Amino acid sequence: xxxxxxxxxxxxxxxxxxxxxxxxxxxxxxxxxxxxxxxxxxxxxxxxxxxxxxxxxxxxxxxxxxxxxxxxxxxxxxxxxxxxxxxxxxxxxxxxxxxxxxxxxxxxxxxxxxxxxxxxxxxxxxxxxxxxxxxxxxxxxxxxxxxxxxxxxxxxxxxxxxxxxxxxxxxxxxxxxxxxxxxxxxxxxxxxxxxxxxxxxxxxxxxxxxxxxxxxxxxxxxxxxxxxxxxxxxxxxxxxxxxxxxxxxxxxxxxxx
Length: 257
Description:
Largest sheet: 6 strands, mixed
Strand order of the largest sheet: 5-6-7-3-8-9
Number of helices: 11
Structural class: alpha/beta
């Protein structure tokens, strides 16, 4: 990953200041403050109904805070990978064409993005024929077309098995190093996604705790929500990850299916 100066790290890309969101008379988020800085991987975890998706939408400007404010760097380039994207299975749509919707991009750029996410061989395949893992890598390729400063993923590995999820998160780490972007993820896959993170924010309507993965996994507030099993799983994943660096061969079948 490119080295960042202390000054660059201090320059926030997105900042939430004392954000409260009320929807339909219910308080979804209460006094949430956080900062996303260049080059870091930040993961938001929390139980169902904790406000994770609402926080993401608020940070992206799709939801207006009832109180507080969200400040984004002017002209900030954001790449977004949704949970899933419904596409009419009867619609003839090759992957390369999909990457040019709604705005046309040069084929060389589209192919380079697919190569970066490990699915260059799928360029001429129909989107409707892709497996879940393949589709997520195509969506990721689409998200990095504009060389984002922040890459945002909302439960991006939902439906993948644990090994597929782990490979996907290792790819995210590689892209962060390649692009020099910050990464903001929302996930329920605790130990796998936390192991890929620099900083974890535990949310339950408010920020329960925040910090390095090991710190959060051992925090009383986190354990009250998720129990104590994740810390051991996190340590195991880190050990396995530190001894496995051949990312290109993690799951070759994903690109070949």
